[in-house]
Design a protein that fits this description.
single chain, 112 residues, mainly beta, 7-stranded mixed beta sheet, 4-stranded antiparallel beta sheet, 11 strands, 0% helix
């Protein structure tokens, strides 16, 4: 059974940083692309970033380019999302996904 567990969320002031982790079990992340999505209150879930663990190819939403960095540690089966220069608009529940499996989400709140 594939499981994803996110961690690292919290409350931070605008301009601050957080690093989210997505620990995967039940699969070899080398074989998959893993993505981060977020959902703010009253809004639809949106894609944030994605990484192909096999070749390191990354993609980012325009809203986070230059501020967020996605990376993976295949030995630890973990994908990270380093979030810098955070803005109140980044406030959301952040989820990771591989295939059709979602994690439970981690709350990120950015105060102004």
């Amino acid at each position: 059974e594939v499981q994803l567990v996110e961690s690292g969320g919290g409350l931070v002031q605008a301009g601050g940083s957080l690093r989210l982790s997505c620990a995967a079990s039940g699969l070899n992340i080398d074989d998959y692309a893993i993505g981060w999505f977020r959902q703010a209150p009253g809004k639809e879930r949106e894609g944030v970033s994605c990484i192909s663990s096999s070749d390191g190819t990354t993609t980012y939403a325009d809203s986070v380019k230059g501020r967020f960095i996605i990376s993976s540690d295949n030995a630890k089966s973990t994908v990270y999302l380093q979030m810098n220069s955070l803005k109140p608009d980044d406030t959301a529940v952040y989820y990771c996904i591989v295939g059709t499996t979602w994690g439970q989400g981690t709350q990120v709140t950015v105060s102004s």
